[in-house]
Specification:
mainly alpha; 2 helices; about 0% strand; transmembrane; Cyt_oxidase_maturation_cbb3
């Protein structure tokens, strides 16, 4: 039974850390414009940066 309480305590700590990281990423602007980065990969023009 002691191991059960230990596992519950560890899982609560993990949930708090995951929630904190998610809260931090939302506040820091990680999810503001997700489509721009996906579009920039597809529209990248590598022909201008090639050196011979």
């Amino acid at each position: 039974m002691d191991a059960f309480f230990l596992l519950i305590a560890i899982s609560v700590v993990f949930v708090i850390f995951i929630g904190g990281f998610l809260f931090w990423s939302v506040l820091s602007g990680q999810f503001d414009n997700v489509q721009e980065h996906a579009r920039s990969i597809l529209e990248d023009d590598d022909s201008l940066n090639t050196k011979k």
